[in-house]
């Protein structure tokens, strides 16, 4: 269970130092993570919402006393508000699914958490070495079609030396091995799905903890990889039906390459065969059917009949043949364990990374395995 610890008010020297290196963007992250509007935060520290906006935009710096109040109200250490010279621009798009059903405030709070996850990784990176980010980029245009996306998915497999006809054993481990940071998190809303932010140093992929189906979660990971590969553009360009459809096509092609699965796909809804393919490729029956339609091994009419049959059986919500627990993030957890072996407590790790203890605890729990493994 996560706990919120009260911050000890910083002394004047720390506050003056933080004010000199003050980063307004970090104030925004802390505010949005705690769920305050600018007006609400201003009332708590007795300044106007416009003043908070100026602080965040870099048009003004808070007075030392005001900065101390901000740190106390937001329950963030003073160190957090200081700009990190190693840090490149945070102007990266965030790829949210189900945009129309997700409020702006929900997305802002989730995005702020992603930035804190990245800050945590940057802090840990001073002590442990994460895999280098070598996620290739193949920019897709709005009209880039499925044949080109199939080629891009194949190029990523080749770049990572993944066999072109074989199933991928663990999608989370694969993207972490190539530089992505992942975490599986529960949010206050059920409307948020998996999402990602393509930072140059540590691309972050967030998986929602309510996705209890391994096959669906694997598709989510592949979908977010598609965004990181093809859509590292602007926020406005990220939030389109075209980019979502392209990421969907990429995920299907990456998980089930044409050369490997085409000859195995049935022309009709042969459920025994579809279940066998689900187990082999680690993809849902719905995804296998989608792949069959895309590769023209199944006609449109047969595809529609099959999806209607799935709906009638209740399989659109709960398919047969559970593949087990979703794949677990490991990179952050292993980094924390390595630091613990060197004598760092979680409190000390929080202090070293300049983050509040409750968020470090949340990130560590989000990076923990979904199910304990017995090693024999």
Structure write-up:
The chain has a 4-stranded mixed β-sheet, with helices on both faces. The protein contains 18 helices and 4 strands. Mean pLDDT is 85; it is low at 1-10 and 370-376. β3 (195-197) and β4 (204-208) form a beta hairpin. The two termini are 30 Å apart. α2 (24-34) packs across α6 (104-124), α7 packs across α11 (241-255) and α14 runs antiparallel to α15. It has helices at 12-20, 24-34, 38-45, 49-57, 64-74, 104-124, 146-159, 171-177, 214-230, 235-238, 241-255, 258-261, 271-281, 285-294, 300-312, 331-341, 346-353, 357-366, and strands at 95-96, 181-185, 195-197, 204-208. The protein folds into 2 domains: 1-83, 434 Repressor (Amino-terminal Domain), CATH 1.10.260; 87-256 and 324-376, no CATH class. It has 376 residues and is mainly alpha-helical.
């Amino acid at each position: 269970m996560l706990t919120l610890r009260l911050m000890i008010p910083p002394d004047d020297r720390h506050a003056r130092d933080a004010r000199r290196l003050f980063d307004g963007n970090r104030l925004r992250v802390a505010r949005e993570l705690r769920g305050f509007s600018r007006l609400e935060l201003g009332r708590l520290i007795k300044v106007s919402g416009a003043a908070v906006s100026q602080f965040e935009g870099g048009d003004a710096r808070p007075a030392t006393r005001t900065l101390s109040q901000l740190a106390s109200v937001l329950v963030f250490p003073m160190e957090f508000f200081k700009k990190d010279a190693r840090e490149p621009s945070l102007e990266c798009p965030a790829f949210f699914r189900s945009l129309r059903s997700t409020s702006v405030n929900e997305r802002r709070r989730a995005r702020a958490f992603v930035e804190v996850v990245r800050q945590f990784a940057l802090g840990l990176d001073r002590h442990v070495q994460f895999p280098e980010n070598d996620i290739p980029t193949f920019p897709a245009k709005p009209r880039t079609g499925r044949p080109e996306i199939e080629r891009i998915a194949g190029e990523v497999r080749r770049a990572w030396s993944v066999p072109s006809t074989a199933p991928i054993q663990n999608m989370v481990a694969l993207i972490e091995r190539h530089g992505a940071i992942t975490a599986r998190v529960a949010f206050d809303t059920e409307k948020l799905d998996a999402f990602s932010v393509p930072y140059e140093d540590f691309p972050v992929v967030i998986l929602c903890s309510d996705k209890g189906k391994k096959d669906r979660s694997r598709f989510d990971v592949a979908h977010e990889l598609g965004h990181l590969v093809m859509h590292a553009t602007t926020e406005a360009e990220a939030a389109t039906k075209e980019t979502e459809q392209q990421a969907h096509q990429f995920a299907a092609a990456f998980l089930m390459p044409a050369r490997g699965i085409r000859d195995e796909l049935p022309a009709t809804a042969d459920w025994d065969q579809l279940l066998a393919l689900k187990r082999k490729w680690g993809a849902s029956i719905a995804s296998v059917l989608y792949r069959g339609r895309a590769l023209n091994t199944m006609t449109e009419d047969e595809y529609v009949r099959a999806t209607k049959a799935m709906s009638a059986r209740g399989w659109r919500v709960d398919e047969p043949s559970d593949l087990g627990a979703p794949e677990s993030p490991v990179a952050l957890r292993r980094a924390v364990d390595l630091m613990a072996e060197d004598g760092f407590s979680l409190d000390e790790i929080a202090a070293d990374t300049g983050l509040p203890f409750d968020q470090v605890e949340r990130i560590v729990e989000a990076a923990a395995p979904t199910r304990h493994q017995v090693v024999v």
